[in-house]
Amino acid sequence: MSSSRSVSSRISLEISLLFLSECHICSNAPHTMRIIIWSIASAFLFSVIFTQRHRRPIFTCGGNFTGDTGLIGSQGYPGVYPPNNKCVWRITVPEGRVVSLLFRVLDLESDSLCRYDFVDVFSGHINGQRLGRFCGTSKPGALVTNGNKMQVIMVSDANTAGSGFLAVYSAIRPNERGDRYCGGLLDKPSGTIQTPNWPEKDYPAGVTCSWHIIAPQDQIIELTFEKFDVERDSYCRYDHVAVFNGGEMNESRKIGKFCGDSPPMPIYSDGNHLLIMFLSDLSLTADGFIGHYRFKLRSLSTASAPLTSMSTIPPTTPPVVITATLISAAMRGHSVLATFSLIHLYKEGNLAIQQAGKTMSTKVTVLCKKCPLVRRGEYLYTDLDLQKS
């Protein structure tokens, strides 16, 4: 389609130039007539050139795209995208490069969990790591793959629609330094992760970073944060760091969601995959963070769940006291899975107090023979409580 258009435009342009250079009528016509003829021909020539340079691209449902850069958009953009549809775009850039995708427009049906209309972005074409699911009108930052392939999937249901999305992809060098690029696949025994611009200045707004750490099968991953300063919110709804067991965003496998200026406690994966997602919205920013990971042999002492003491004799004084607000709780067999927003955290020895406002959300699993009924509200937990459960 595009090649036939370019051929017809080239023919029209050649005809116009031929007309202007070989028009014998013009040379023999009166002066006024020559001006009219030249004006008509010039206008026609200008319209051909303008149309060629400013033709609006036609966006279809998915497709295969190659090259260093390009533009993809929802079907019919900027018109309303069709309902009950699924479109797949597969992007491939030259070997040795990775794909960066930046949304220019995002206008899909809004939902807090993006259950209805959404755009999924994956690193790779088949069974790749999902970099994020997006809906509504809040655009993510640049999304960067681990290799030279990316897959974008848009799904719509039967109801409300919008104008869809418009995004630009480009080929960049792996680990290219810049204020909008971060994340990647990490498989060395130890390493460092940090927000863009660290430590010279604040991280930029509208950034999404995804680090996928893979250890050998018989090892787990320890993650510690040396410095941590991310926009504060009681429920970490805006800028935040989310950590997941496994290689993709899965709420059932989320270890925790963190923000504020208090570094989280050391985090341990329950397997050989760990995913760290950092997201900043389009408003306030902060210093950011620097963290370190290392591989460790599996051991009972570093298992992230369940939170029960290995000692049979409870200590006389609790080493940890937590004040928290319960967000949700669910029974799972002989255990309770609860999600808390921590308010205060006291630790034995060198007293450490996490003040109100410097909160985080985390999930706690407690094994119990007879699990109690848990309702929403504020709770105070000690290490003794966990041992008695």
TrEMBL record:
It holds the Pfam family CUB. The chain crosses the membrane at residues 33-50. InterPro entries: CUB_dom (IPR000859), Sperma_CUB_dom_sf (IPR035914), TIMP-like_OB-fold (IPR008993). GO terms for molecular function: collagen binding; peptidase activator activity. Residues 61-172, 182-296 form the CUB domain. SUPFAM superfamilies: Spermadhesin, CUB domain, TIMP-like. Keywords: Disulfide bond, Membrane, Repeat, Transmembrane, Transmembrane helix. Disulfide bonds join C182-C209. SMART domains: CUB (SM00042). The keyword Repeat applies. This is Procollagen C-endopeptidase enhancer 2. It comes from Anabarilius grahami. The lineage of its organism: Eukaryota, Metazoa, Chordata, Craniata, Vertebrata.
